[in-house]
Amino acid sequence: MAHGTPAPSSESTGNPLERTAGSGLSLGLLFWLFMLAAVAATLYARRAWWLPPLAVREGASIDRLIEITLGVTGAAFLLVHVLLGYFVIRYRTRGQPRAHYFPHNTPLEVLYTAVPAAVLVSLSVAGLMTWSRLHAPPPPDAFLIEIRGQQFSWSARYPGPDGKLGRVDPRIPQPFNVDPQDPASRDDVTSSEIYLVVNRPAHILLRSRDVQHSFWVPAFRLKKDLLPGRTTELWLTPTRTGTFDIACAELCGVGHYTMHGQVRVVTQQEFDRWIGQQAQRR
User: Fold this and answer.
1) What is the CB neighbour count within 10 angstroms for residue 27?
2) What is the pTM of this model?
3) Nearest Cα to Cα of residue 158 among 177, 141, 142, 145
4) At 175, is the pLDDT very low, low, confident or very high (cuts 50, 70, 90)?
């Protein structure tokens, strides 16, 4: 020890066994503090940043699945951290005899393997059922609309009185690559605005003019990619009128952050009036 440096007293450093016990207590309390902070952050997020109000009928099953998954994983999180903190505090070193050691316990191992497995399988089955319902064929009376994405905007094409969209050929120049020789294309209406009808299923064809995009409306809970040279599909039933934001959920270029738009859900009368005005502008 260097000359002049005071030697630590046993009172200031404490007994090594006491220091270890104190560390165990602090660590156990830290686990519980972390758990409480996570619960508080989750409750605050549900009030401030949670999902926007649902606006389509098909999204209800997605919301339900999210809530069930959050409930199950949240319960597991709480259980693990309560037990972890308890065991660290209860069995921290305090000069007691060594803990009892046993190499395995078959009933216990079966229990903590079977229960999580059953929960995960149940969640997977529920997810597959939801996926199957969302990807089932659209109702035969669904309203047909084509939505096209391009760097960095959205536009739409609506069928005319014949209820059919004209044929599309990628070799035909813009806009929308519509074949003018197809009689069904002559009454098609195109617009930079996207309108849907409330309480009426909409069968949406998604096409890209250039690169990959992704059509995502948070209030609809549904997202679908747009692939160059291919047509992807999506169907949904809006349940309330209003204006809902579109976000491109695929990094599509330097201006990706500007690729936003809006979907307007209106009544059938409002839509008929609007589509009539658009048809007169062709």
Assistant:
1) 14
2) 0.80
3) 145
4) confident
